[in-house]
Amino acid sequence: MARRKTSQFDPLARDLADFAKAMSHPARITIVKLLQDSDGAFCGQIVNALPLAQPTISQHLRELERVGIITATPQGPRICYRLNRSRIRNFCHAFSETLGTANEKQQARAKARA
Questions:
Q1: Which residue from 47, 65, 67, 78 has the least number of CB within 10 angstroms?
Q2: Considering the entire predicted model, what is its pTM?
Q3: For the chain, what is the domain count?
Q4: pLDDT (tens digit per residue) in 66-89
C-alpha cells in the first residue's frame, strides 16, 4: 500500500496544515466568529445567521469539529456547538512559533548577506 506523502512531514506541520485548511473557507471563519461572541449555538441559529443551506452549514460544522476547532454537545434532540478556545490558542501559538522561527532565520540570513 502506498504511503501518503504527508505522513513524511513533522506531526506539528501536519496538524498546523490541517487546522489552516479547516479555516480556509469564509463560512467557517464566519461560524467561528459567530461562536466567539456566544456561549454556544445550535445549528438552526447558525443557519439563520448565514446565507447557506442547512446541509452546507452541517458540513462546515463537521469539518470544524473534525480538527477540534469546535465541540458538539448533545442537548436533547439538538446539538450545541461551542468554540474549543484552548485548541485555537494552541494553534495560534504553534503557528506563530513556526512562522516566528522561519522569520528569524530569514532575518539572520539577510543580516549575514549585508
A1: 78
A2: 0.78
A3: 1
A4: 999 999 999 999 999 999 999 999
